[in-house]
Amino acid sequence: MDAKEAVLDDNVITGTFLVNDIFARVLFDSGADKSFVDHKFCKLLNMPVKTLNVNYEVELADGTIETVSTVLDGCVISIKNHSFPLSLLPFKLAGFDIVLGMDWLSHNQAQIVCNRKQVVIKTPSGDSLPFGEIPSMDCLSK
Q1: Which strands sit side by side in the sheet containing 118-122, from one edge to the other?
Q2: Which of 21, 61, 78, 104 could connect to 100 by a Cys-Cys bridge, CB 3.0–4.6 Å?
């Protein structure tokens, strides 16, 4: 799925956010175990990658297995003036700079509100922070 398809798909949540002060196209993916950064965007961040102690295997949609052996730590995503740390596995992504998977979603106590295409996460102070698309409520006012 590329970014254009994702915007039209009611089942996914995307957005553009600052990651280390660089705009990134982000996909929130509860179907991904880990979080990933595209190789090209990784180079833009200009940060050192570290070798993983244990390689991570990624199963692609077509069933093939790719191995990831590095991690990019120390990145920060800014969402509505709040900063959240990121640990990202460099990987070839189509249409997105970053995919935030269950590792990040769980750590930030995320709730995906499907009917509103929203994600609600907890700030470090414990407040709920909703973001994403909220459909028009015109149908409810008739």
Answers
A1: 111-113, 118-122, 128-132
A2: 104
